[in-house]
TrEMBL record:
Pathway: Carbohydrate metabolism; tricarboxylic acid cycle; isocitrate from oxaloacetate: step 1/2. InterPro entries: Citrate_synth-like_lrg_a-sub, Citrate_synth-like_sm_a-sub, Citrate_synthase, Citrate_synthase_AS, Citrate_synthase_bac-typ, Citrate_synthase_sf, Citrate_synthase_typ-I. It comes from Ideonella aquatica. One of its GO terms (molecular function) is citrate synthase activity. This is Citrate synthase. It holds the Pfam family Citrate_synt.
Amino acid sequence: MTPSDVKATLSFSDGSPSMDLPIYKGTIGPDVIDIRKLYGQTGKFTYDPGFLSTASCNSTITYIDGDKGELLYRGYPIEQLAVNCDYLDTCYLLLYGELPNTEQRGTFHSRVINHTMVNEQMQFFLRGFRRDAHPMAVLTGLVGALSAFYHDSTDINNPEHREIAAIRLIAKMPTLVAMAYKYTVGQPYIYPKNDLSYAGNFMRMMFATPCEEYKVNPVIERALDRIFILHADHEQNASTSTVRLCGSSGTNPFAAIAAGVACLWGPSHGGANEACLNMLGDIQKMGGVAKVGEFMSQVKDKNSGVKLMGFGHRVYKNYDPRAKLMRETCHEVLGELGLHNDPLFKLAMELEKIALEDDYFVARKLYPNVDFYSGIVQRAIGIPVSLFTAIFALARTVGWIAQLNEMIADPEYKIGRPRQLFVGAEKRDVKPLAER
Ligand code: SDX
């Protein structure tokens, strides 16, 4: 953080003493006004529910420019990473700050691949769930339960323990997601196979059965790997902020990541891809493209509570760069699978076209986000709709861990403890029951 020559001066119309607030500049993006001394000097808090104007930390990991529709992981544009790297290269970059060289890449890949199994006891944990439980309910439980197997060797303040916990979580998430899926379909779990790629291993654990050899389709494998890259990290979004706040108490990383999984589940966040596909299915049932106008009228009617899922973003007021890459991946996968006439994909493109020309959306700068096309491509791959957010959580785990480790490694970090504007009852006495 570089102190700016410019200061902010806070003055009060009632003659209370004014206060100079330092301003800091980052390498790119908006400056920040440092209010850390505000309460101590003025007895007043700032007020920012939803954190629309609040920077919660300084970070070197991911940068988003919402106006340009730009996303950088450690300075590298997502468009270049999606084409030139694979997901484990991206994990290495997010965790350690640089892309790996050949030797580093080989070592990291083999470390991850050699931690893909989970303790055999985990399958008995799964048995406690109903077979029709939502995979995100199961995954929240499974990730938290990992701390029952490793908590004794994972001191969040020990850098070596943080390192092995990161490898374990990245390695085991695909195994856990696949187990959650197999449990719901009543099929036996498939153990990881260490001679496959990260995405190929996940596909086999998801779709193979003990009855026959499973052949990984390289086009699908590459598409899935790209989906993981696109979802890997995204600055201080709701689930990442949850992981930071949870981890700031010093809890173990498995518990903090489980909190992130729980937050991501919400339909306004990672649950939007599942909600988006369900929305496309509903419009299809209404009559498809012919009914898009009617659906859009509902969206514009505030009282309807209907939103165009997969559209809009707190930061992107331009096209989400991930949505563009996801749409390309959609084309590739549907083409490979002979589904280029997929009605939902055609419907999604028609919805996008209409929305981008409609004043309601233009005025509010609502563009497709990462969730708009991701559901269509996952459905084409054979991933059930209810598992979409679990795939998002799988991919985002590395981002959550990188952000958590960055916070813990900062000697200045403190437990997060926001305050409030209290608008409730003033102090009053309890009346005897007979008088209430
Ligand atoms: C993700 O933060 C991240 O980085 C998240 C994420 C990540 O990688 O971690 O990018 C992943 O969560 C993507 C977002 C997925 N969610 C959805 O697709 C759900 C639909 N989108 C909306 O719920 C909404 O756009 C949010 C939650 C994403 C953003 O909400 P904001 O920033 O609080 O904006 P808002 O709700 O105040 O909307 C501003 C206006 C409002 O209208 P007015 O009151 O000004 O008239 O836009 C409208 C909203 O009603 N609006 C929408 C809309 N999104 C916003 N109207 C219709 N459909 C939508 N999708």
